[in-house]
Amino acid sequence: QLQLVESGGGLVQPGGSLRLSCAASGFTLDYYAIGWFRQAPGKEREEVSCISSNGGSTNYVDSVKGRFTISRDNAKNTVYLQMNSLEPEDTAVYYCAAGGGCHKGPYDYWGQGTQVTVSS
To answer: N or C, which end of the chain has less CB nearby within 10 Å?
Structure first.
């Protein structure tokens, strides 16, 4: 089985932090770029961040720049999304996906998502 599994979501107050994890099973992430996506109620899915296979390049959607940090630990076969200064607008289901490169084509593998709710 080839799977990506997201974890770390939950309920957090505005201004709080969460660290999401994207763990691969059945394959190695060494050669994959990993993107984090989110979909909020009534909104289209958007890519919020992506990291290259070696971690050398990262990018973020404008709305999360300075607040979110993507990183990876290939030895643990895991990619992380550190989310700080969370806002209610960040509430969404967050998905990770693996592909050949950031924004270079369709992603090959997707997780099932983890819910992030930012509310007081």
So the answer is: N
